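lol ok so funny story. i was supposed to be doing the assay writeup but got distracted and ended up predicting the structure for this chain instead. priorities right. anyway since i did it might as well share w the group, maybe its usefull for someone
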Amino acid sequence: MDIYLPIANMSVNALLIVALGGLVGILSGLFGVGGGFLTTPLLIFYGIPPGVAVASATTQITGASVSGVMAHMKRGGVDVRMGLVMIAGGLVGSLAGAGLFRLAQASGQLDTIIGLLYVFLLGSIGFLMLRDAMKALGWWKSAEEESPRRRRHHKWVAALPMRWRFYASGLYISPLAPLALGFIAGILTVLLGIGGGFVLVPAMIYLLGMAPRVVVGTSLIMILAVSAATTMIHALTTRSVDIVLAALLLLGGVVGAQYGARLTTRLKPDLLRFSLAIIILLVAARMALGLTYRPDELFSIEYL
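and the output, tada:
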């Protein structure tokens, strides 16, 4: 069943878009990521203009995050205080990101900038996640001797002033660290149409030292607030949100997030991180191919 997208000015298969939203919703509940890192590139591969894909994907991220947060809160997997600090940073970051987005639009290089940022971020973070997951699974042998006892949080975080207690996470750290993480995620949400979860989740584990049981839910509560604000910013400033496309993605995303949250209690966390890293690297490779490869002939004539 084809349906017309007014802002994108094209027709798409509605069932395919709903299925994409469902797949991203499962990833959202499973890994604590908004899913935009997958939604936006796939929409671009399908032919949706990058600006429309970025803006519309944030609406789907909001819906999937609502569903995922509710599921994780039921099992006590959310550090609300940590989430509120990250939200404060994310809202400021989203305003900064909106300014950068409009500058990129004015330069006429928005599509290229989005593609390059995706390749860099997905490639670097995907590799780091893959390496750490393989170490945890015993598949990667490092020449360096690692301390048998892992540090709770990074030395830079430990050096920051004005410490607070985050009881659900079991941490006593400065709020400046999660505030900065939220700011970065806010910028990425506006610029790339991602929830920022694929940056937040590794940072929350390896920089802040948060307890794994609350990382996914806390990430989602921050993504929920920031992606909702980002949707409003895009709707009012860039005017790139295609409501029909967003509704189709949202339909599949809300349902998929519930199934993803249930799977987190049944699957091994290290295998989940390994799987997510592979997905991220595959998307990065496809984005890089799209930026560099061009067919010899853009048009061909076939004689009948």
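The first strand starts at residue 2 and ends at 5. Residues 2-138+153-291 form one domain.
back to the writeup now i swear
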